[in-house]
Amino acid sequence: MKSCRRTRIGKRKNARVTNPVRGYSSCAGDLLQECNDRVLLSKPPTSSSSRQSPLDSIQEVNKPVSSTSQRASSAPKHKYAAQLQRQREHRRTIEYSGTVVYLRQEHFRRGMLEITQNGYVWTGKDGEIEKVTQSTAMMVFRLEEDITFEPSARADKPCGLDTFRPTPEQIANYSFPSALRLGWFAAIACSAQDVVIDLNGYELKQGKTHYLLQRFHSLIELASAPFIPPQGPQNFGSLHAAQRVAVINGKLGLSSHHGVHSNDTVDVLLENLSVRSFEVAAIQMNGAQNLCLCNIDVTHNCQECPVVGTFSAGVFMYHICQTLPEERTVSLAGVVRTAGDIRNKLRGALNEVIEDFLAGGRIDARVHPESAALFTNSTGEIDGPSYGIILNSSGVAINGFPMEAPYPSRNVYMRDIRISNLTGRIREVLALRVGPHSDRFQTDGAGAVFQTQNVSEISGNLLTINAAAEYVGNVVSDAQLLAAQLALEGENVPAGTITQDTLQWAAGGAGSGQTLFVATVPEWLLGSYFFNADSMHHTAKGMIACKLDGIDNLLVEYVTIQAAHNNAERGITDDTMPVRVTQKHVPGYMQYLIRRGKSNATASLNGYSGADMRGISLSATSNAALHAVNMSNISSMHGQCTAIDVLGKSKSIDLQDIVITGVQAGVCRENLGAWWGNPTSLPIAYGIHINPLALGVAMINVQVSIAYSHFDDVGIRAQVDNSDETVYMKMNKP
Fold it and tell me: Which stretches does UniProt call biased (Low complexity) (predicted)?
């Protein structure tokens, strides 16, 4: 078989594993059979002649593809070339004939730059927030120096918890005040039309303290708010998205969430950008129409994060507690506590973290042992989901992989993209269920999970409950319960979903006999959990270097992905949770445990996916072509590792001139019995994996080399035209 031969994925008869594992125990053999059952392939299109390729409406763009490819030379690509050319010409027109607004550090001293159709808001010459009213159409906003975004709302308080929140007086100057409910969500928020944001070779980044305290932040938000209504933990108001906007020529540095983020933009060009030191994603565009990404360098996500998600929950709860009357009380762990006391202790702990972080970049466990135990991130790796680039259908990307995309992104062109040196270590966080007949989970008013099974990353000690599953509490959980209690009593405070049963349990404390083992209804324990999610209960999907989901009409060419690693542990079970509370009564739990079911309603894949690594995912994506993709050195510590994963109801996918090397799964190399009775994906290395719902996947000149697969090695499992064989196209086995 020649390497250039076209292979169409079709339904394979008598599917079987072609390289059986030898010398493993019977349980490993069962796992192998399970693996075989899961490797299903898509159904073939009705006929090869009737199938329309995504390349039929696209013409050549500059670089020729490999001469060995029979089809590429004649494949039209003019649609995407014209789209890119049009956006570049529009950008140049604005640059040459438009008004230039020069941006310096002083313009960000008190708050973010907001650009709307009717003006812009920044820090004026008097050092206070100023609103400039004029049309921004055909304007260029150009950096004149490196910008560190660390605004101080109060000149007399250069640092501290109360410094970085926008004041009511400041908020009044902004066009969309509801968007500022959770603080300065961006350094630049642009909802205008016909604007160029020119970084001019300089760097825009968060300052260290603002990065620590504003855990929800994108350097550039191409909309008036970070969520489309009614999504998000609170009401952020209506959404106005940018149109015909370009972000070009510079560097985006430290950010607690994204470099660039948007919802529902139209005609956006991102070009000549270098993005690094982000936590969630360098670029995330949801519901984008006519999007071009060109010459983008994504490297070194944030790998020195000092805190876990509990710190973010603490910061948001502190600001909620500030609105509560100090004299109000709640009973916690057998003691009646006032709102003022709970708030002050939380503030003290958070300020200890700030003090240590500014002094040495980490929390000093010798000086502040309690704060260090509660908040320290021991490895510095991101404890939540982490990606390189996310392109998604309209709305948030926090749930499972989309099986369908009713509101997809459309007409997306990615060219000359380099993604490298990504690492993460997702921590699974168990969420208490609201009740036996509900798919809801218990969170505070800012959306953070009310954690009960959390332990210190320093000592391994329990932080919220004791060994008897009685409430002992900490400064964050106390504040969460206070706000929940007062919300139930009618106080105007973000309520969350913490239940009255949970409040009654927490009132008891050590020695009270009030435990998570208590049945709130027959055969239903208070300590019943959802699994497979993080501290905000975002569904675990592992790490993905390039997440291309929910897109209609996509061309990706000249992409390099290298050195991406997920170091997450295996999933938690009722046998391995810190305080064992049986979950066998929970509907679906036993199926979830053996990777035959899901733990929560938002998941799309069976079992626990937090330990998985993917280079590129294509889920519910249609009419897509990936050309000249080079991927190397991607790995998972405990989960599945897949270079290219086609999921959901994807259709008409062309993979051409693809080189995949160094795929490694299960590099921990632990005994395979550890996956028996555990929901974590089997540590299998895939070159290309095709979900059974996908239709019409074609490959030309694809090369796969598996470096290490702890369980089984799979290059490309496909059906060759007129054959029932499983084909490995230039696959090297370990």
Answer: 41-57
Say how far apart CA 519 and CA 525 lie, in whole Å: 4
State how far the Cα of 546 lies from the Cα of 559, in Å rounded to an integer.
10
Q: Around 111, how many Cα atoms within 13 Å sit in the side-chain half-sphere?
A: 29
- Yes or no: say if 515 and 471 are a contact pair by the CB < 8 Å rule: no
pLDDT reported for residue 604: 94
Place of tokens 């710190």: 311
Instruction: List strand residue ranges (DSSP E) for 340-487, in order.
Output: 386-392, 409-424, 431-432
Handedness of CA 636, 640, 644, 646 (dihedral sign): negative
- Are the CB atoms for 255 and 218 separated by under 8 Å? yes
Q: Where is 698: in which H helix or E strand? A: strand 695-709
Backbone angles phi and psi of 677, in degrees to 5: 75, 20
What pairs with residue 617 in β-bridges?
547, 645
Give the number of other CB atoms < 10 A from CB of residue 499.
Answer: 21
Amino acid identity for residue 202 in this structure: Y
Least Cα distance to 298 among 316, 283, 309, 308 occurs for: 283
Sign of CA dihedral 463, 469, 472, 474: positive
Q: Which residues in the chain show pLDDT less than 70?
A: 1-77, 153-159, 231-236, 713-734
Q: Is 707 helix (H, G, I), strand (E, B) or coil?
A: strand
How far is CA 570 from each of CA 452, 486, 519, 674, 677, rounded to the nearest angstrom? 19, 38, 29, 9, 11
Going by their DSSP bridges, the two strands 218-221 and 258-263 should be labelled as parallel
Question: How many CA atoms within 13 Å lie on the side-chain side of 640?
Answer: 27
Residues in contact with 676: Cβ distance below 8 Å, sequence separation at least 6, in sequence order = 27, 30, 31
Structure tokens of 353?
């973290």
Terminal alpha carbon distance of the chain = 22
Residue 439: both structure tokens together = 């798919």
| CA pair distance 661, 26, nearest whole angstrom | 31
DSSP H or E segment with residue 220 = strand 218-221
Structure tokens at 534: 């993080």
CA-atom Rg of the chain in angstroms: 26
Query: What is the spatial distance between Cα 592 and Cα 482, in angstroms, rounded to a whole number?
Result: 34
Sequential DSSP letters for 437-471: T---B-B-TTS-B--SS-B-TTT--BSSB-TTS-B
Q: Residues 534, 428: contact at Cβ < 8 Å? A: yes
Residue 117's contacts (CB-CB under 8 Å, 6 or more residues apart) are 135, 136, 137, 191, 192, 193
Strand segments, DSSP code E, in 493-550 are 519-521, 524-525, 529-530, 543-548
What DSSP state is assigned to residue 340? H
Q: What angle do CA 205, 208, 116 make, to 5 degrees?
A: 40
Query: Whole-prediction pTM value?
Result: 0.88
Distance of CA 47 to the CA centre of its chain: 38
Contact assessment for residue 47 and residue 79, using Cβ atoms and an 8 Å cutoff: no
Distance from C-alpha of 526 to C-alpha of 272, rounded to nearest angstrom: 53
Residue 731: what pLDDT? 37
Q: What is the signed CA dihedral for 408, 412, 415, 419, rounded to 10 degrees? A: -20
Contact indicator for 577, 647 with CB cutoff of 8 Å: no
Looking at residue 381, the DSSP 8-state letter turns out to be S
Give the burial class of 169: count Cβ atoms within 10 A of its Cβ; 0-12 exposed, 13-18 middle, 19 or more buried: exposed
> Which residue's structure tokens are 């996908």?
694
User: Measured between alpha carbons, how far is 464 from 701 in angstroms, rounded to an integer?
Assistant: 55
Q: How far is it, in rounded angstroms, from Cα 28 to Cα 501?
A: 42
Give CA angle at 208 (202, 210), nearest 5°: 100
Output the pLDDT for position 232.
64
